[in-house]
Write a structure and sequence with these properties.
There is one protein chain. With 157 residues, the chain is an alpha/beta fold. The chain has a single domain, classed as HUPs (Rossmann fold), CATH 3.40.50.620. Helices cover 40% and strands 18% of the residues. Helix 1 links the parallel strand 1 and strand 2. The termini are far apart. The model has no long low-confidence stretch (mean pLDDT 93).
Length: 157
Amino acid sequence: MSKVIYSGTFDPITNGHLDIIRRALKIFDEVIVAIAVSHTKNPMFSIEKRVKLAQQATSNLSNVTVKSFDTLLVDFAKEQQTNHIVRGIRAVSDFEFELQMGYANSSLNSELDTVYLMPTLQNAFVSSSIVRELIRFGGDYSHLIPNEIKNELFIAE
């Protein structure tokens, strides 16, 4: 059974993230959504809340598990017994950053492969950063997040 890790802060999980998860499930048997604690990014939502939101958002997808981690991704991958990482690429700027991270991870574990997936055009602009800004300024973000978590985020405001 092949499994892949899809890591990030997921602050919060968006339709763009779900798009990548669904695409990854077409390639791999199992997707582990790995939510980074991320002390440096100062997330809007706690790690517990981000895990809960991701679990709710993926509850209708079989073979998806959600876990938090506070280590190097290569160490988490080893712990999960997989050598596959999936990352979403929306724009050239994403590619440059993700390629650098992929090479850095590969330098730490030469067996680790990173697969890059593009979201659908409708989700190409969606990011957690945009959702957070809309939350902060009272904009409508309901079309950017999974239906399963809409009530949770409205409560979180």
